[in-house]
Amino acid sequence: MMKRKLNENDQPVPTESTPSTAKATPSDDATFADLGLEPRLLQAIASQSYRKPTAVQAKAIPLILDGGCDVLARAKTGSGKTAAYLLPILQSILQRKQTSATPSTSALILVPTRELADQVAKNIESLSSFCAKDIQAVKLSDKLPDAVQRSLLASSPDIVVATPSRACACLKNSALVLDALGFLCLDEADLVMSYGYEDDLQSIAASVPKHTRKILVSATLTPEIQTLKGLFCRNPTVLNLEEAEAAEGDGLTQYVVKCGEDEKFLLIYVMIKCQLIKGKCLIFVDDVDRCYRLRLFFEQFGIRSVVLNSELPVNSRLHVVEAFSKNIYDILICSDEKELLGNEDNVADDEEPADAEAETQKSNGKDSSNAPSKKKRRSKRDKEFGVSRGIDFSNVALVLNFDFPRTAKSYLHRIGRTARAGKTGMALSFVVPKEQFRKHIPTTIDTSEHDEKVLSKVTKQQTAKGKEVKPYNFDMTQVEAFRYRMNDALRAVTQVAIREARTREIRQELLKSEKLRRHFEENPAELHHLRHDGELRAARTQAHLKHVPDYLLPREGKKALTSENVGFVPFKKIRDGKGRRGRITKGKGRRAGGRKADPLRSFKARSKAK
User: Fold this and answer.
1) How many angstroms separate the CA atoms of 306 and 316, rounded?
2) Rounded CA gap, 458 and 413, in Å?
3) Considering the chain, what is the average pLDDT of its residues?
4) What CATH code is assigned to 21-240?
5) Residue range 256-273: mean pLDDT, rounded
6) Is the predicted pLDDT of residue 582 greater than 70, yes or no?
7) Bridge partner residues of 185 (DSSP)
8) Strands (DSSP E) found in 165-318
9) Sheet holding 21-22: strands in order across?
10) What confidence score (pLDDT) does residue 250 get?
């Protein structure tokens, strides 16, 4: 019987037949220079203002550079996993080119969505900015014709970024050659499986040389990961950075509001219009119809927002994400049709997402037999689209679960969009109690029936991590003064208006995406002129709803609307009285006592003393 080797602490040394699990114990004073990276990569890192490596970077980079084993890295969303595998890949390519000038594809990076492919390609560009002549990267997209993709791959680029379906198609037509492949990386590995790429991954695994090193990175360790590990890896080293997750999540505060279905619209109107929350806000809703219902509702009050969903063309989606990260938009309304992941034990997990229009008609008490079939509606949507995972939104102050997610796992990934890289953030969720379900039919959705059950799982999950989901308390007696305005706005947002707005938006975005694509490729500086938050127009618009009259506010001011001083995330600098836009020039605005004065604002009355 062969004895196992022991280290200086009399602990078994992992052998090739025993995968090891590493914990996060990075040194506080560790730097990127200590990881043995090339000087040009260190220059690029410095230009990106990275101060020191994160836990996953400090562990994964030396392990991948060593090249002795495959790597399976699990770390929380926003922990720097992309740079953790890109930096050693770039380092290996630069070292290979010092001894060999033969062009070959050294790395294939597989991602679940085209948005994530675009993000990874931009990270490659930034990290190789000081060695761009020596690194050639290609991003494959469904929007490119096969002839164009074949010409891009003809020069054997060093790095290829693609979804599994695109990579498999290029392998079958011999456009992509993997004979000299050094690295195969699966980013968001658990999502790659859940998006239905099983057959493509089987074909890719059969084409990858045995000497290729495999890297799997993910935010969770799910059964899908075990399947991928068996398909691609041989005794991988597992980096399970759970301890770092608990330490880095201290900047996130979580709140929950239990309210009726119509009160969701009332509270979000009060919070945004009265500026109870500030900064960039990412709002999650249940389906595409809810996106446009909420956006049309906002337009009634002059609140500008932009929508992100699977029906929009990919070029528009990429531009929306980029513009939101550059602070062009403050409010982004997202529907995430790919939020159901894994086999989590949840009452709603086995339910397929209902067709948006049929579900809305059902919720309004109408027969949905004449609604478009699921197959027809789904064909219009992008199956490779997801928001809650993978996409990197910068400086999100608030994640607002307008419709509570269907699983605790989806909740975890949604709130991971804020409080990233040591910054602070807030997650606020609306939960419909069981007794208030279907009390307001025009705004109801079927998934709200399970809100409290999912919330109990979320609370248990967060408590196990030493975190708390606190109640966000409103003084409803003060908020009720705004209810009639909310009702006026909701009456204008009819189902016909939603359907027309949805169709109009898709038509406009298709025109922008196709007609302007070539122009913006030649003139990238003009991209900021293209906006996606234009008015969609409801059935009727009411100008008076865009302003909040003083008589609606409590005597103590806006802060009296909440019983606790919570919810303020100052990502934006607050201007004092001197810097406000409140100065009224002559001939503009409405002054009290003037010809266009608001009689309700200028009217003064005192109650009689009892």
Assistant:
1) 11
2) 12
3) 77
4) 3.40.50.300
5) 94
6) no
7) 109, 215
8) 183-186, 213-218, 237-240, 252-258, 280-285, 306-308
9) 21-22, 237-240, 71-74, 213-218, 183-186, 107-110, 159-162, 137-139
10) 64
CA distance 68 to 59: 14
**Integer distance in angstroms from the first to the last C-alpha of the chain?**
98
CA distance 469 to 467: 7
Q: Which residue ranges make up each domain of the chain?
A: 21-240, 249-342+384-552
pLDDT of residue 517: 63
The tokens for 521 are 């490729």
- In this structure, the number of other CB atoms found within 10 A of the CB of residue 541 comes to 15
The DSSP bridge pattern shows strands 137-139 and 252-258 to be unpaired
Separation of alpha carbons 53 and 50, rounded Å = 7
Residue 147's SS3 state is: helix
Q: Do the domains 21-240 and 249-342+384-552 sit in the same CATH topology, yes or no?
A: yes
**How many whole angstroms separate alpha carbon 608 and alpha carbon 603?**
16
Supply the pTM of this predicted model.
0.63
- Name the nearest CA neighbour of 586 among 577, 599, 595: 595
471: Cβ contacts below 8 Å, ≥ 6 apart: 255, 256, 257, 258
Q: Say which CATH architecture domain 249-342+384-552 belongs to.
A: 3-Layer(aba) Sandwich (3.40)
* Cβ burial, residue 248 (10 Å; 0-12/13-18/19+): buried
Q: Strand, coil or helix: what is 32?
A: helix
| Beta strand extents in 234-279 (DSSP E only) | 237-240, 252-258
Cα angle for residues 94, 97, 103 (degrees, 5° grid):
120
pLDDT at 326: 84
Residue 80: the pLDDT is 85
* DSSP one-letter code for 602: H
Identify which of 260, 39, 24, 222 has the alpha carbon closest to the alpha carbon of residue 130. 39
Q: Which residues make Cβ contacts (< 8 Å) with residue 370, sequence separation at least 6?
A: none
Tell me the per-residue pLDDT of 193-224, one tens digit each, with 9 for 90 and over. Answer: 777 788 899 999 999 998 899 999 987 777 77
Return the half-sphere exposure (C-beta side, CA atoms, 13 A cut-off) of residue 29: 0
Rounded CA-CA distance 235/311 in Å is 41
Give the C-alpha separation, 450 to 308, whole Å.
Answer: 25
What φ, ψ does residue 129 adopt, rounded to 5°?
Answer: -65, -25
DSSP run (H or E) holding 379: helix 374-379
Q: Report CA 316 to chain centroid distance, whole Å.
A: 15
Distance in angstroms (rounded) separating the CA atoms of residues 443 and 465: 34
Token code pair at residue 316:
């528009």
Confidence of residue 160 (pLDDT cuts 50, 70, 90): very high
Say if CB 122 and CB 130 are below 8 A apart: no
- Token duo for residue 144: 């490119």
pLDDT of residue 310: 84
